[in-house]
Amino acid sequence: MGKQILFVASLTMLLVAALGITPVVAVDPVKIGCHGAFTGKYAAYGMSTLHAVRYEVAKKNAEGGIKSLGGAKIQLIEMDNATNAKDSVANHERLGTNPAVLAVIGPCTTPMSQPVEPIAARYRLPTVHSITTLDKIFEHGNEYVFTVSVLASRYGATYASFMVAMHEKYGLTLNRITMAYPDNDYGISVVDGFKKGMKKAGFDKNIVLDLPFNWKSKDLSPIVLKIKAAKPDFHLQVAYFADGKLYHDACYNLGFHPWQVGGASGFNHPKLWKTLGEKIGGATIGNKKTFAYDMAAFDLPNAGRDAWTKGFTAKHPDITVEMNLLLGAMAARFVIEAIEKAGKRDRTAIAGALHSLTLEKDDPRDLAGTYKKPGPVWMRNGKPNSYGYIAQWEKGNGRWSKKTLFHPLMGMLAVPKAFR
Amino acid sequence: MMGENSRTDIKIYLGLLVLLIVLLLLPTRLSITWTRTFAMVFLFIYWASAWNIIGGMAGEINFLHPIFIGAGAYSSTVLYINFGVSPWVGMFLGAAIAVVLGLVIGWICYRSGLPHLSFALICLGFSHIGEIIALEWDLLGGSRGLVIRPAPGLANMQFETISTYYYMGLGMAVLMVGICHWISRNKLGYYLKAIKHNETASAAIGIDTVRYRLLALAVSAFFCALGGTFYAQLVLYIDPHSAVSITAVISMILFCAIGGFGTVLGPVVGTLILMPIGEVVRLYVMTGFHLIIYGVLVIVVILLSPHGLVPWFQSRMKKTQEESPA
Amino acid sequence: MDITIIAQALIQGLMLGAIYGLIGLGITMVYAITGLLNFAHGDFMAIAMYLCLALFTHFNMDPYLSSLIAVPALFVLGLMVYHFLFRRVLKAELLMVVQLTLGMVFIIESSLLLTFTADYESVPNILHAVRFSLGPLSVSGSYLATFLVGGGAGAALYWVLQKTDLGRQIRAISQNKDAATLMGINTTRIQMIVFALAIALLGLSGSLTTSILTMEPYMGLELTLFAFIVFVMGGVGNFLGTLVAGYLLGIADAMGSLFIGGHLGAMVPYGLFVLLLLFRPQGILGAK
Amino acid sequence: MLVSVQDITAGYGSVTVIKNISLEVDRGEWVAVIGGNGAGKSTLFRVISGLVRPRSGKIYFEGRELTALPPHEIVNKGIIQVPEGRMLFPKMNVIDNLLLGGRNRRARNNVNESLKKVYDLFPILEKRASQEAGTLSGGEQQMLATARGLMALPRVLLLDEPSLGLAPLMVREIFNSLQILNKEGMTILMVEQNVVVSLKNAERAYVLENGEIVMSGSSKDLINDDRTKQAYLGI
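Output (structure tokens, whole complex):
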């Protein structure tokens, strides 16, 4: 008798347990691919994206998964392309041919992003790049390819409108304009945008030095010497982290501190102070005449980003929150939101949902603070609706931080230090 | 002696035949990604074998192959994109350019009798210059590279299914191994071996060393360049970083080293072992870790069997045959 | 172009060249005595630089001070690598040795990546923001320090080779290894010591250049190639030639980017190397 | 027996150069190993000095086994080889060459005396002291090589082809010096192609052919042996 009761009881318990588990098991997880350069030359960029994407996915799963799909959990498929095009293509194809994969975040940086564009089209695979800036990729009007980053040409346009604004508002002379940039896809595209902008304002004749340089160089003194010799009124410097550091070192050594605006990690990376040292950094990027392009205006109020940063830092105190990380997080957020919105496991529907994503002014979903124009996140031709800021480094409360000065749509937001 | 050798050979060829049949049937069982991976594996077998002619058989530390691959990839792609010339035609122009470049550079270097290291470095110098030319020349797309818009069709050397690439790669690899086998059994192969063993002595017994090294280099360059076109049509994108890449030639040498320099089957064995292992580790174990595995494997193989796996295997087979005279 | 600009670029080229020379010296030492080509050479320097980085982040130690740790640490590392790996391939084919060291390159670079991530890093030292001027010309303290230490290391090496018993043994081995063995020289030991010294020299170069070069896990192979070029240009095995070739390459680099610029300018050092080797295969100071 | 070589087989790679060689040298003796080119004479010396590891067989010095010792330890025991082709350090001066000769553990403390002694024996070397070894004449180089060997205070001197490439006059001079040394008690083991000179100077000799010892005996007996006469002396 006792044994029978025990048997029935355990059978009932098993049944209840099974019923309890079954609904959870029944919903297949939603698979999202994330691939990029996690090893190799560009690993710094790839890893930033990956950290942010992992964090976003974990957060969404902890909140109960995709609600419109019955609380389906998100499963991230991570793939490394070791910074080479052939593995990038192989990865994308692998994700494309897996019908369970609904969208892909990455790959970041142009050489890995450019070759996967046709594959995204072939498999109708929504692909959201985080820091891919080359205009050319988006000019085909591919409905499945997106980026959350500012495009290289728009960097250039922002530099141009900033220079013009400085001229018109503060009377800075623009008789001699110089520009130095890495002679790769990024540098050339930025400068193309800049030249177009200057031409519109009628200053293109004043560009006296057009200086592409080898960004893998071990010393930029000769470049700085050439710029110095051109006696610029205003200088445009495009630089990555390593060559940016070399540039600032050389400027300091040669006692050259022009009015200048610069972009990319060579001017706005939070780590610059650590690597340059307080004195050199203070004398060059911290001086009153140097301006940095930034895609995340850390000093402007942005509730969404502050909350995000707080959450992220609590979990990963050792990872610096910088632009690439924020862009990676945004790419992940948009993808998740689009799946939620599409409400079905269909790639075309998700791509459509991505196209219809809109942002209001000061939208808390905009982590970088670069989407200042209300409207769709993605424009018709696939280009993002995003703009960067021009900022200036300032020392306050014993630490250096960036103060946002200028936005191409809003004009001057604050008075530059030199004129205060 | 001769009889033993041919008996060993027959066993090896039977093994190869079985392997070939397995490989022919494999795509029906493989996912698209693995099919693509294997197409790449075959390309590397093909490239490593082509490198092996000049590198392994003639014993040179030759780093000129990025130029050859680049010449093939860029020639056919530029012709195809700008003038609509079929890659099947373009690839031969690329190969011709590669051969000419190889002969000119080779002639300059061999004539001055550079020691091994200087020769290796001068090759690296030329490869680097090649990469810079690709970066600077607008026709070649500069650092932005060239994208081939997908347009499947036999005339465009683009295929609807990856398994077609797989079979094409397999065919190329088999052809290349056959050519290597033929060379190794031929006058050229014996001369190269003599040159590798002792160049001065070879010259003394009347071998025109410069001529045969140039011949080997030209053959190697020709086939490398054809592989470059195949690469471009498989990936549909080339840039200086990937098409004039020193990393690729380092991988080729690595595969040859594991299998055995100068042996016909060395590159096949090395590539077939290392590349799939690397791929599995890269995908399923830990990213970035596969290079550590490569490194450890190559060191272990070199310490245990300094001539590579194929010579080790051959000497093992020979030993067992000697032990059992039946 | 203004003459001071050229003079300044020349100085900068010399400073950069001192770094190349310093890295090349180790290759020269190892080759002279073992005939080995170590493609992982630059990666050992990367290890030293990352060691300085770790000491800086955890103990806020100046890289110059860290050299007191980095040099002995790399010396020991060199002893171990020689004992466990290189000793066993001394008689193997050259290509095999190349391959073995390339295997080490893979291991070191990937390990650095997994430990330190791929972020660009650089550690400022005490002289980093010091600037020495002479009229219109100026030079950074950390560059000057590297320049002087590079020259000093070259001189010290020369003294050791010419004036000490160790030096005599080293020269004997490099001129005729079998004969040196027959003199009762423990060649294995001397080779091990020299290899370790060469690696220790990289420990020094690494700590000196943490503020000048930007670190990333894959920096090693490029440094190795430059070191090889310097080594061959100077005349294989010629210590003084190595230093001179380093300066020459640095100046070519500076002049290339000053007068030509861009990727084409970056081609100048390689072009110089190729031309020199074709017309003078024995190197700048090498004997025929 | 001072040196005793027992059943040595050695070679390079898959080639066997010497097979089952046994020979003995007593204290104060001058023993020659004669044979044509490629007979394996130099390989034998390289085995005794430890530069080549034998496949089988053993070597004893004063009853103690040497076979497993590294080459520099063999030198420290007093077995000094003057290698074929001299193997000088061509870019070092004469005095550095000599000093390197005298740097083993036994000789280290007597360097100055040894230097004086070799200068007495070969006065020309003192004149050339600061000249680079590579610039000396062939005879002077052989003298330097021998002198460098003597600097090591050998207990047994292994001479590999001391007459190779030298003019007859020079050969006579070198061998005169060696005679003096031998009279003073130096043990000499020498390999030579020049059979006449060898048999004239050495007390005993072994004949090596194709890596095997085919004959041995006192020099007198060998000179009178018909087979040696035919094969080596051309009589």
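The first strand of chain C starts at residue 131 and ends at 134.
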